[in-house]
Each structure stands twice: as structure tokens, then as C-alpha cells.
Amino acid sequence: MKKIAKFEKVSFEQFEKDWLKCFPNTNHVKEIYNSIKLPKRATTGSAGYDFYAPDNLVFVKDKSVLVPTGIRSKIEEGWVLSLYPRSGLGFKHRCQLDNTVGIIDSDYYNSSNEGHIMIKISCDAHDEGHTASVAAGDGFAQGIFTPFGITVDDDASGIRDGGFGSTTK
Questions:
Q1: Are 75 and 145 in contact (CB under 8 A)?
Q2: Is 104 left (phi over 0), alpha (psi -120 to 50) or beta?
Q3: Quick one: pLDDT at residue 158?
Q4: Whole-angstrom Cα distance, residue 87 to residue 12?
Q5: Coil, helix or strand for 57?
Q6: Quick check: 13 and 45 in contact, CB under 8 A?
């Protein structure tokens, strides 16, 4: 198996800024940061790296939650990290990523936000008042590394700085 990436935590300063933007009433950000677990595969045959909830999360029907993971990934050129919800959240609660599949490119690592991976999930359950809870430290998303190719006449020369939609700005 080719080893092409490495997960790291973003700095506390970056995490705190992003976390408080999403969860402004949090008074234990340092504790959350210190407990962040790097993504891991559960078994030798697993393709997906489990992303763990930094704190208790609640996904409410018809609402979206943007989760700063505290994680970034240094990825070799020619590879991409694709993000998906954990299948249990999808099957049991109809939770899904707002952008369907998250794409983390290798050059995102060098962005001004330190390549902080943010995962936005919505709950689309059928029954009124439905919620899905994920405890701090439990898996809520998974990431899979895949190689990609480019066209023979590719001439991309842009420089990334940011995440969501930054390559079209």
C-alpha cells in the first residue's frame, strides 16, 4: 500500500477561531482541542479514515452543522481526500454532507486557514423533531484517499487560499 498522506492537527489558534465561529457559546475550547483524535482506519481492509467528533454533536432535522475537525492533511500531489458521512449516520438518520462529497486537494494544506478540514452535515430525516447525536470522540465522517489524473493540455496555474469555493474566486 502506497503511503501518500499524513494527518495533523491545526494550531490551537486556528481551531479556536473556527470553532467559536461555529459554536460561539463554547467555554471549553482548549479541552476540545486537546482531545482531538487524528483520523484512523478501523481495520486493515478499511479504505476510509474515520474522522472523530471533537465534541458532542447534534444534527437536527432540516438543519446544517458546520464542524471544524481540528485536522489538516498533507497529501502528495496527484491524490485527493474525499469526505463522506459515516454510513450509520446516513442509513439511520439521513445525515449527509451539504456538498455531497467533500474534496480536500493537496494544495489546501498551505491555505491561510492551515488547511483546516471543516465538514458540514445536514439531517434530512423523515420524522418531525428527529435528531442524531454523536458523542465526542466517536466517528461521524470518513475520508478516502484516491489518485487522480489531469488532461494532457492542462495549464492550471492558480494558487489556492481557502476552502469552500476558493478555486473559483
A1: yes
A2: beta
A3: 83
A4: 30
A5: strand
A6: no
**pLDDT bucket at 163, cuts 50 / 70 / 90:** low
The one-character DSSP state at 167 is: G
Closest among 166, 47, 36 to 107, alpha carbons compared: 166
Q: What torsion do the CA atoms of 7, 111, 141, 147 make, to the nearest 10 degrees?
A: -70
pTM summary value: 0.90
What DSSP letter does each residue of 70-125 carry, written as one string?
SEEEEE-TTEEEEEEE-HHHHHHH-EEETTSSEEEEGGGGGSTTTT--EEEEEE--
> What is the DSSP-derived secondary structure letter of residue 11?
P
Average predicted confidence (pLDDT) for the chain: 93
Residue 162: predicted pLDDT: 59
Is-contact 19 159, C-beta < 8 A?
A: no
